[in-house]
């Protein structure tokens, strides 16, 4: 049996944001059973410095810097008539590294993490190809288009259409297409007609995200309403802006001591400016989100655009915090009623006000949420389906060569 080539659009270590958390745990799961060769991009200098953290899980590691600017990627996309999501990750050195590794190593399986990396799978290969889409990026851009004005609306529609065509071509040529939720997988089946679409859900480390674990505690005044996430990511920016400007004022009428805390790295200027509003605090990057989650009277995830399973919601549930999430943010999670959901200003503000007014009930909801996560979302159980996908079968016969999956 040969090795696994793991292609990732972002280095999985350290696992400090949603996509990297999933990638790291998949890599770790595969490495416990197979020799894995990692080829990935880095867009943060700290990821290059943290490369040694991947040693226990990889037979070899190639981390390449991705420094292409967005304007350049967009120009290339327009000239080449390709999605900018692909041209942004198109790199000659990466093609060379992948080709060299496939030539030198006995690779039985290529695990592709995120659609941007499918362009590096060779035209023909005897290796099994597993495409982990996570969610449908094309629909995310379609949602962006609805919320944008011209010319961005045209650009987002173009991206959505071209990316969907690419996703459909890839799905027809790989051995399996993976998604993080049943809803996302079923949507992909209906839209593409793809046959082998499977669900491999996200999990959560409930030993790490445990309110009883050893971590620094925060002394706070007021009732904290906490949001966590990468704060240069458009859906997160739009979510906290909407909450701070339209929902929080309604909450502070009932609870004047309520404070909305936005926790996450790389806050945009728009996010930083929210701190000028009464009752809003922006922390920027923190070494550990658990102190803020542990201090929260309530955690919110009011995303208008969300696909798949939101790690921020699972983390809050694991920390036994009561959660109020939008419909899109809650959709992929089998929470069994242990979190509250709302989309309008009235629905969200009423839900938060109710939790802030009933500390005993909020704590009970948090405990039930943690119990649900413990029972349903352990990483080992969520990733178990990968073992059958990666296995070669009883005779160890590799699958037939697949067609080209590049754009």
Task: Pick out its properties.
single chain; 407 residues; alpha/beta; Rossmann fold; seven-stranded parallel sheet; six-stranded parallel sheet; 17 helices; 43% helix; globular
Structure description:
By secondary structure, the protein is of the alpha/beta class. It folds into 2 domains: 3-203 and 380-390, Glycogen Phosphorylase B (Rossmann fold, 3-Layer(aba) Sandwich); 223-377, 3-Layer(aba) Sandwich (Rossmann fold), CATH 3.40.50. 43% of the residues lie in helices and 16% in strands. The protein has 17 helices and 13 strands. The strands form 2 sheets. A 7-stranded parallel beta sheet has the order 3-2-1-4-5-6-7, sandwiched between helices. α12 (311-318) links the parallel β11 and β12 (323-325). The protein is globular and about 65 Å long. Residues 392-404 have low confidence and may be disordered.
CATH topology term of the largest domain: Rossmann fold
For the biggest β-sheet, the strand order reads: 3-2-1-4-5-6-7
**Which regions are unreliable across 5 or more consecutive residues at pLDDT < 50?**
392-404
Shape: globular
Mean pLDDT: 93
